[in-house]
């Protein structure tokens, strides 16, 4: 009966052979040197195909329009899947009987919804002003959460490990932050509020570029934080599993496999944590422009 370690080896070995195996043979014997780095990069980067263990699903490509590539990639499919899961759960899975949840899924979603509403939106924007922002923040939270969790499923990928995806989410946050301030305080007053009141006039010319840089630094931090955290965890897991092949020692698996399982459990927590952090920080930034006096 094959052991768990041999199953892992059988899965990883073809991948290594396909993505960058460098074999060096001598007259005295055969000696192999596997390039594990190519495997790691391949499984965290975007591509036009999806590995389904025994075959590859090649995705359609489209011509470039105005320098923009509209081809369907692996991470695009994962984004569609995350959006579809959010739609599926909240349209067909969540059921209410009056104010009482009809199933366990509804009860679990209710806990998360109330947490996002009370501990993120209302905490930063207040109940009166925050009520209109609740649908947006709930959508962002659950979409990022499902996108993060997809990477923990074998053969799937994490779209939030693509910096283009996190940059798009950060850009949406930037637009919301500025639009919220403009709608609440007016166009001219909103831009006037970027300079703190009471600042001496000679310092205004210095603070204007500093504050404008800070305006873009906030969504940039959201982008990099989500991208780096979701990429790092998968690299660590694959690195532990790759050591089995790199060192060619079954005893190494006694250490690396438990470590990989432990990191996977930690990744489950990080998936929720990063969705919370992105949503919470966006709510704080919206509150700063919505209530500049505070």
Descriptive overview:
The protein is mainly α and 294 residues long. The protein has one domain (73-290). 68% of the residues lie in helices and 9% in strands. The protein has 10 helices and 8 strands. A two-stranded antiparallel ribbon has the order 1-2. Strands 3-4 form a two-stranded antiparallel sheet. Helix 1 crosses helix 9 (201-247) and helix 7 (163-185) packs parallel to helix 10. The chain is globular. The N and C termini lie far apart (66 Å). Residues 1-9 and 18-34 have low confidence and may be disordered.
Low-confidence stretches: 1-9, 18-34
Give me the secondary-structure category: mainly alpha
> Could you give the count of β-strands?
8
What's the domain count?
A: 1
Distance between the termini: 66 Å
What is the overall silhouette? globular
Discrete helix count: 10
- Percent in helix: 55-70%
Strand coverage percent: 5-15%
Strand order of the largest sheet: 1-2
List the secondary-structure elements in sequence, H or E: HEEHEEEEHEEHHHHHHH
Average pLDDT, all residues: 81
Largest sheet: 2 strands, antiparallel
Radius of gyration over all CA atoms, rounded: 24 Å
Summarize the model shown:
The chain has 294 residues and is mainly alpha-helical.
